[in-house]
Amino acid sequence: MYGCEAWTISKQTQKKLEATEMWFLRRMLRISWTAKKTNDTVLEEAHTTRLLISKIRKRQATFIGHVMRREKLENLVTTGMLEGKRSRGKQREKLIEGLADWLKAGKSLEAIEATKDRKKWRTMIANAVKQGT
């Protein structure tokens, strides 16, 4: 998880991370891959929920809050406000957009504005972690 603060997590990447997490749980609980157990029953046996994605998103959110409050070069790079032409083709997902979806903040601008108030930003992160999305 080193450096996960800078990852952009697409739906495909999220599925791969969730599959890896489930594989880890099955290995720790010594459940054979031929055993006919659903993922829900494995999660119940482990007495846990999906933790990996929520941990990554929480770390990303705290990092983005820190970067946005500093208002330096990192802020410009993260928000994509640099001068120049955009590349051709489908544009890549930005880290801010992924976090705005996770926090259910609507648009990325609302998430950026919320980072200015540290208390509000922390409550948004805590609510998103509680919901487990």
UniProtKB/TrEMBL annotation:
Domain of life: Eukaryota
UniProt keyword terms in alphabetical order: Endonuclease, Hydrolase, Nuclease
GO molecular function terms noted in the UniProt entry: endonuclease activity
Designated name of the protein: Endonuclease-reverse transcriptase
Organism: Plakobranchus ocellatus
Classification lineage: Eukaryota, Metazoa, Spiralia, Lophotrochozoa, Mollusca
